[in-house]
């Protein structure tokens, strides 16, 4: 819980800085003094924290409560759409708290009457970009982890086969092989020579691959 809260605050601070910087660039009426005022920074942080918390909880539920194995594309689509819907809802609530309760600019009815869809374009675009980037990164990371897991399975299978081979080459195997070789020397010297070569290659392989 503390780790999640710490990460949430850190992300909110970063988003606050980004939003403040964008506001300074794209809003002609915003001066540097206005930007650095405690009130404005507090409002920026309030929006950033609320939106980050909503999306953080949403991603937490998706990652831990839903099985997404083999459904990477579906996860990206649901994640982006869900994140956008929740962000717009949270942004609406933040604007209502900000304008109605913090600044007392309107009552709630006046706030609803003055709301415009254009106010939500920037958070919609910002959230879509961030959410899509996050899910593409997660998708790539999950793909890499799956490849690593497959390689571990392959390595484990090879190790198991090698262990099985070593278990076969115990003293009883060597004793039986020498008995066969003794019989072949008298009955079929050529076959005995081939058998000796094969047995030598087998033990050489085991010694070379022992590590």
Sequence-ordered SSE layout with sheet pairings:
Layout: H1 2-26, H2 32-35, H3 38-65, H4 72-102, H5 108-114, H6 121-168, H7 171-187, H8 189-208
Helix pairs in contact: 1-3, 3-4, 4-6, 7-8
Describe the structure.
- Helix content is 85%, strand content 0%.
- Helix 4 (72-102) runs antiparallel to helix 6 (121-168).
- The model has no long low-confidence stretch (mean pLDDT 77).
- The protein is mainly alpha-helical and 211 residues long.
- It has helices at 2-26, 32-35, 38-65, 72-102, 108-114, 121-168, 171-187, 189-208.
- The chain is built from eight helices and no strands.
- It has two domains: 2-155, no CATH class; 169-208.
Summarize the structure.
By secondary structure, this protein is mainly alpha-helical.
What are its keywords?
single chain; 211 residues; mainly alpha; 2 domains; 8 helices
| Strand composition percent | under 5%
Number of helical segments? 8
Point out poorly predicted stretches.
none
Order of helical and strand elements: HHHHHHHH
**Helix-strand category:** mainly alpha
How much helical structure, as a percent, in the residues?
over 70%
Mean pLDDT level:
77
